[in-house]
Design goal:
With 190 residues, this protein is an alpha/beta fold. It contains nine helices and five strands; from the N terminus they run βαβαααβαβαααβα. Monomer.
């Protein structure tokens, strides 16, 4: 069983790499973005609440995100591992995740940070928004999300580095180059 966090700002390629790991390593992707979009699509009261938060580019509360993650952990455990994509975003979420996993006799085994350039991300998101029209890909909302990431999430790097779990990968290469670097990090004896 291996639990992995893919770490990086929005649009860094975490989702693309997570899907590849699901296909090749049979891990379960726990993407908070996908889970939140599914909640919105359901039209449930939670989905309606989340919709307004995401359209403003704000981060969804820890309580909501942690509840969504906890519901999916049994599935990940049965598959032999989870890829956390977009979670944790804050130190409080990281600590809550560690406690939740410890209570299940598990832990985060590795954190892979996709290092990317903010300006290149802005260009990437503008192109993605033009294609998809996803409200959370709106360039103005994206600026808010990127700022939130840089202010709230980036400080998690020392948390995982101090645990000896952080590996940095150049996220600006091609999809295949990034995939090879991630595979090398995962296959390296620890």
């Amino acid at each position: 069983m291996k639990n992995l966090i893919l770490f990086g700002p929005p649009a860094a390629g975490k989702g693309t790499q997570a899907k590849r790991l699901v296909d090749q390593r049979q891990m379960v992707q726990l993407s908070t973005g996908d889970m939140l979009r599914a909640a919105i699509a359901s039209g449930s009261p939670l989905g309606q609440k989340v919709s307004g938060i995401m359209e403003r580019g704000e981060l969804v509360s820890d309580d909501i995100v942690i509840e969504l993650i906890e519901q999916r952990l049994p599935e990940a455990e049965a598959a032999g591992g989870a890829i956390f994509d977009g979670f944790p975003r804050t130190l409080a979420q990281a600590e809550a995740l560690d406690l939740m996993l410890k209570g299940r006799g598990r832990q985060i085994d590795q954190v892979i940070r996709l290092k990317v350039d903010d300006e290149a991300l802005m260009q990437r998101i503008a192109g993605r928004f033009a294609e998809s029209g996803r409200p959370d890909d709106n360039p103005e909302s994206f600026k808010v999300r990127l700022s939130a990431y840089n202010g709230q999430t980036a400080p998690l790097l020392p948390y995982y580095e101090n645990q000896g779990k952080l590996v940095e990968v150049d996220g600006m290469g091609s999809i295949d180059e990034v995939a090879k670097a991630i595979d090398a990090a995962l296959d390296k004896p620890r």
